[in-house]
Amino acid sequence: MSSNNPYNPTLVALDTPDLKQALKLAKNLASKVGGMKLGMEFFNANGPQAVRQITALGMPVFIDLKLSDIPNTVAAGITSLLPLEPFMLNIHILGGRAMMEAAVDAVNQAENLGYNRPLLIGVTIVTSMQDSDMQELGLVRNASDQVVHLAKLAQDCGLDGVVCSSHEIAAIKQVCGDEFKTIVPGIRPKGVSAHDQKRVMTPSEAIAQGADYLVIGRAITQASNPEAMADDIWRSVRHADL
Ligand code: C5P
């Protein structure tokens, strides 16, 4: 997309079980971010009806449930999410080829069922894991090689992109090409605490690396002025050639 018509790449992680708080944040941030990410903390506490309340605000919603099960169950789980009209969904790549291909078939049915096709995103190796975890699981590659390997496999199965750390964007784009989407958590504007994230980047650094979407939680939701923080982030990335 050209810089004359930039899209806002920030997806705010509404990591709370409190529906009232999530709705307040979503309303206040609606014009300042690109969408909302709703994960299991929100979804398990409030259910599908609460997702509808967020989308009713006109917000694109990423439903981050990281599905993984036998192919038939994952495909059916995705079909059950389609009426919520998410613009993005995710599954674990480690669920394997048959599961990923079944998930792709399920999102490809969206338009036949009267819904927009969501982007289907793969979770590679969660960033809380490191090389010693790979060894313990019996995986032979180190964590960053494993991430690139899984991204390539996900692309081969028809997924639209992956969740990855900012430090893996360049290697993934090199192997999978620019069109393959990278969704990047662990983002901190300068001066904001890293909290429990190990390796962080600023929004503009991650965009410069090629990030397509930035998942940003506490840096916005716990700011003394979340709207002003979202505005600052948007200003810092909007002139990048997205
Ligand atoms: O508050 P913070 O910006 O660190 O939140 C990041 C969000 O991204 C959380 O919702 C977290 O679950 C999610 N996430 C992550 N690292 C991953 C995958 C998802 O931080 N590897």
Structure explained in plain terms:
The protein has 242 residues and is of the alpha/beta class. It has a single domain (10-240), classed as Aldolase class I (TIM Barrel, Alpha-Beta Barrel). It is 42% helix and 15% strand. It is built from ten helices and eight strands. It has helices spanning 19-29, 40-55, 71-81, 97-108, 131-137, 143-156, 169-176, 203-209, 218-221, 226-237; strands spanning 10-13, 35-39, 61-67, 88-92, 119-123, 161-163, 181-184, 213-216. β2, α2 (40-55) and β3 form a beta-alpha-beta unit. It is globular, with a radius of gyration of 17 Å. It binds cytidine-5'-monophosphate (C5P). Cytidine-5'-monophosphate binds next to β8 and α9. Cytidine-5'-monophosphate (C5P) is lined by residues 13, 15, 39, 126-127, 163, 185-186, 195, 197, 215-219.
